[in-house]
Amino acid sequence: MKWNRITAKDNAQIKAVVLLRNSAKERKEKKLAVLEGLRLCTDALDNAIRFAQLFISDSAQEKYAQQIEKFAENSSVCFQIPDSLFLKISDTDSPQGILSVFEIPENKPFEKADGFYIGLENLSDPSNLGAVSRTAEALGINGIILTGNSVDPYAPKSLRASMGTLLRMPLFITDDLISAARSMGLKTYGCVVNRDALPITDIPFAGGSLLLIGNEANGLTETTKANCDVCITIPMTGSAESLNAAAAGAIAMWEMVRRNQYE
Length: 263
Known about the structure:
Elements lengths: L2 E3 L6 H11 L1 H7 L1 E5 L1 H9 L4 E7 H6 L1 H9 L1 E7 L1 H7 L8 E6 L12 E5 L5 H14 L3 E5 L8 H7 L2 H4 L2 E4 L2 H8 L2 E5 L6 E2 L9 E5 L8 H6 L2 E4 L11 H17 L2
Parallel strand pairs: 1-4, 3-4, 6-7, 6-11, 7-8, 9-11, 9-12, 10-12
Antiparallel strand pairs: 2-5, 3-5
């Protein structure tokens, strides 16, 4: 693989990467996103995600030569740049000097499905998206359905928080969780903070279930709560009024799958 050398800060390729890193609109329009670091690029490689571009710092070329050779074979174009220039495109405090640009996968079709799914409505924090997705993968959840006005799953912070899970798990994007669920033949369970809702511990979840978690501050929208099949709640005996979205998602997903997968 031929390596192209870039040293100028105002290089067009460098500017394009910075724009992709910072702008959800740019990622959506170009259908491209950025992965940074040895682990994420390795996860992408292991999941047959091809790189449109690869950027390597001078020091990384020496330190990670064996791994970078594999990345280069998986890349359409390769660039080697000075460490000082890599800092311009990096999104981390201590960059490893490895960054790739990849094509965002097409949205998965809403086909009839069985199994257990998690739906996230208007989630705004990439850390919560990352935490929920990692828990979902660990518990054997079959896929994640995310509303399009949630945090961008292909933002650098989302991908980093998920530790590669968002590259591995089936991810569906929709404007309407209820419509998506109906298209897939899934029964919907809206997780709410309401003592009148059914305790999640009493729900006999079966295959073909979609658990719905809402925005960190506002929860599920009134429309979603009104149209989901069942509203459920996590019983709490302490003084806290609600749980963090990631914590609520972890508890709820465990309850959804445990009778079928762990008992």
